[in-house]
Every structure is written in structure tokens, then in C-alpha cells.
Amino acid sequence: MSTKPSVLTQELRAAVVALRAFNVETAQVAEQVRQAGLVPIRFQWWRDAVNSCYRGAPVKHPIVQALAQARHSRTTRGPSYCLA
Fold it and tell me: For labeling, which of 12, 32, 65, 72 is most exposed (least CB within 10 Å)?
């Protein structure tokens, strides 16, 4: 285990984890769906879910909730995610 302090704040780490979870989830869509015709429908669900974060009413899904929280934290505090 590394003893180096993290460059990322706790808030930013949560945002990065949310983005990574979203990435993994959407990358696996084609593998998880049995019928190829349903893949675009699943991607549309994710598109709508992400858009729900911007409307202020995120759907009840753990990854979407985490994305919404990351977005909310960034917009309320301003562009403070500088790694300097």
C-alpha cells in the first residue's frame, strides 16, 4: 500500500469513481444484452439517465445518482477541480 497522499480530493475521487462506473457499465452494454436490437434501447436509457442529471431529477440508479452528485458538487462550488 502506498503512503503517498492522494492528489485528488475526496470529492474529486468520488466524481472519478462515478465516471469510471459509468464507463464500465456502458462498455458492457453489448455484452449484457442478448438481442442485438436491444443495444440501442439500452444506450438510449443511459442517454436519458445522464440527461436526467442535468434536469435536476436523476433517475434512481446508483451510478446515475453518483454522477448527479458529482455534477451538483462541481456546479455549486465552481470549477475547483484543478490538480495543481
Answer: 32
Q: Kind and range of the H or E element at 61?
A: none
Q: What CA–CA distance (Å, rounded) separates 21 from 46?
A: 12
Q: What is the pTM (predicted TM-score) of this model?
A: 0.76
Sorted by where each begins, the domain ranges of the chain are 10-77
CA distances from 24 to 16, 18, 32 (A): 12, 10, 12
| Tens-place pLDDT, residues 38-69 | 999 999 999 999 999 989 899 999 999 999 99
